[in-house]
């Protein structure tokens, strides 16, 4: 007999749920994140810190008045963007180092 628990998805943390909602509402942030990470990859970087990419994206939004629409990008979303990027770009496995997320 197979246990139903084998098929259950682990509960998402509140931070992961907030990230999912933010990403749905502001897909342009992930697009900018990918653009910066892709530029680094194309420049020959094979390892980089997600927080560094995150800060470049924040800076680009801060200096561009057309992109400032009153939202802020919380620090806690950086590891979620890294995981999303690696999931969407499997050939770049290891570009960001990931650790277990706190629940």
Overview of this protein structure:
With 103 residues, the protein is mainly α. It has one domain (12-92). Helices cover 51% and strands 0% of the residues. It is built from four helices and no strands. It has helices at residues 14-25, 27-42, 50-63, 78-88. Helix 2 crosses helix 3. The longest helix is centred in the middle third of the chain and has 16 residues, at 27-42.
Largest sheet: none
Query: Got a strand count?
Result: 0
Low-confidence parts: none
The tally of structural domains comes to 1
pLDDT average, as an integer?
A: 86
* Class by alpha and beta content: mainly alpha
Q: Number of helical segments? A: 4
Helix content: 40-55%
Shape: globular
End-to-end CA span: 31 Å
Computed over alpha carbons, the radius of gyration is 16 Å
What is the H/E order?
HHHH
């Amino acid at each position: 007999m197979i246990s139903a628990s084998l098929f259950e998805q682990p509960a998402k943390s509140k931070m992961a749920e907030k990230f999912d909602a933010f990403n749905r509402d502001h897909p342009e942030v992930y697009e900018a994140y990918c653009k910066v990470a892709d530029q680094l990859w194309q420049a020959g970087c094979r390892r980089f810190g997600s927080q560094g990419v995150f800060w470049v994206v924040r800076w680009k939004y801060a200096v561009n008045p057309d992109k400032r629409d009153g939202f802020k990008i919380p620090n806690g979303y950086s590891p979620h963007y890294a995981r999303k990027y690696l999931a969407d770009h499997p050939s770049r496995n290891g570009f960001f180092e990931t650790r277990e997320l706190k629940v």
